[in-house]
């Protein structure tokens, strides 16, 4: 896997991902209305959310659970000193479906956290405390 990063201006950089997607990452995202994209740390958090969400939905579908939606909310805390690394991240899954089994949703979250989500495992090995929770919403007709 590879990526290319090019300095645009100020704290903004354009990127091209391994799969050819292009975008911006901007260190000024939190300080400026003119930011061209999310901050690098926001992208790390989004990457974690995407990785674990993919796992959870995939595991549930393989378990023949009828998933109609999965929303994942992440809340992160960072160190007060430089480097301002993530110290804690809480991941909350809101899974909507038909007759979802609590045990299957809990299992999917656990398997993602402990076995499949590369981003999560990498961050935890780096000292980030990651916790999980979930809720199930029964789809209405």
Give me a quick take on this structure.
33% of the residues lie in helices and 37% in strands.
Structure description:
This protein is of the alpha+beta class. It folds into two domains: 1-38, N-terminal domain of TfIIb (Single Sheet); 40-138, K homology (KH) domain (GMP Synthetase, Chain A, domain 3, 2-Layer Sandwich), CATH 3.30.300.20. Helices cover 33% and strands 37% of the residues. The chain has helices spanning 40-62, 102-116, 118-125; strands at residues 4-9, 12-16, 22-26, 66-78, 86-98, 129-138. Helix 1 packs across helix 2 (102-116). It is elongated. It starts with a strand and ends with a strand. It comes from Reinekea marinisedimentorum. InterPro entries: KH_dom-like_a/b, OsmC/Ohr_fam, OsmC/Ohrsf. This is Putative redox protein.
CATH architecture of the largest domain: 2-Layer Sandwich
List low-pLDDT spans.
none
Helix % is: 25-40%
Strand content: 35-45%
**Would you give the CATH topology of the largest domain?**
GMP Synthetase, Chain A, domain 3
CATH class of the largest domain: Alpha Beta
Oligomer: single chain
Strand order of the largest sheet: 1-2-3
**Order of SSEs, N→C?**
EEEHEEHHE
How many separate helices? 3
Number of separate strands: 6
């Amino acid at each position: 896997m590879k990526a290319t990063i090019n300095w645009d201006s100020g704290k903004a950089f354009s990127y091209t991902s391994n799969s050819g997607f292009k975008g911006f990452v901007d260190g000024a995202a939190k300080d400026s209305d003119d930011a061209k994209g999310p901050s690098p740390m926001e992208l790390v958090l989004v990457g974690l959310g995407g990785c674990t969400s993919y796992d959870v939905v995939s595991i549930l579908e393989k378990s023949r659970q009828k998933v109609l939606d999965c929303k994942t909310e992440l809340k992160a805390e960072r160190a007060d000193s430089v480097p301002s690394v993530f110290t804690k991240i809480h991941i909350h899954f809101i899974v909507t479906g038909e007759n979802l089994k609590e045990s299957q949703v809990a299992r999917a979250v656990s398997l993602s956290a402990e076995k499949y989500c590369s981003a999560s495992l990498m961050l935890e090995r780096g000292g980030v405390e990651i916790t999980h929770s979930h809720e199930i919403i029964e789809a209405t007709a």
